[in-house]
Amino acid sequence: MLPNLDQKAKNMLGKLLRLMFVVGTVGLAGSFAGATSVTSQNLLAENQTTPSTSSRILQINFKYNNSTSDFRKQMKDVAPRIAKAPGLRWKIWSIDEGNKEASGFYLFEDEKSLNNYVENIFNVGMRNNSAISNIVVKKFNILEDPTIVTRGPISQLK
Question: What are φ and ψ of residue 154, in 5° steps?
């Protein structure tokens, strides 16, 4: 399909396309069929050598087992506690009611804050919640230049 590209270029292009898919589906829960454990992935870290910001994006996807109305109420009740997480700039909540899937997209001011959230708040709250399953955790660096062009809310980071 891409005969003029070497393998490294093809791998980089594949990573970029996967990231574009994730960014393009922010409002929709991603597919995580077959995922049964918490996983971590950083698609760009090996190729992004000088990020201009230390802020990090966290994406958490999962399936919920209770009714959608109960799930919505539970998330509304949990939101004020998550808002107090140290280093959290913002969180976008998303839901796919038809598939009973949900996602959260978080912006943390730095790696330390993100890791603290995953290791402490996330592990205490979500991982031990019997109403959710198929949890997938992903960590990303921010590609600042194209994010600014597409009006991503990162101007507050400077």
Answer: -115, 5
At residue 35 the predicted structure's pLDDT band, cuts being 50, 70 and 90, is very low
Bridging pattern class, strands 132-141 and 56-64: antiparallel
Q: Cβ contacts of residue 156 below 8 Å, gap of 6+?
A: 89
| Phi, psi (rounded to 5 degrees) for 142 | -95, 130
Both tokens of 157, joined, read: 């980071």
| Angle at the Cα of 151 from the Cα atoms of 21 and 135, rounded to 5 degrees | 40
Specify the amino acid at residue 23: V
The C-alpha atoms of residue 130 and residue 9 are separated, in whole angstroms, by: 42
Q: What is the pTM of this model?
A: 0.65
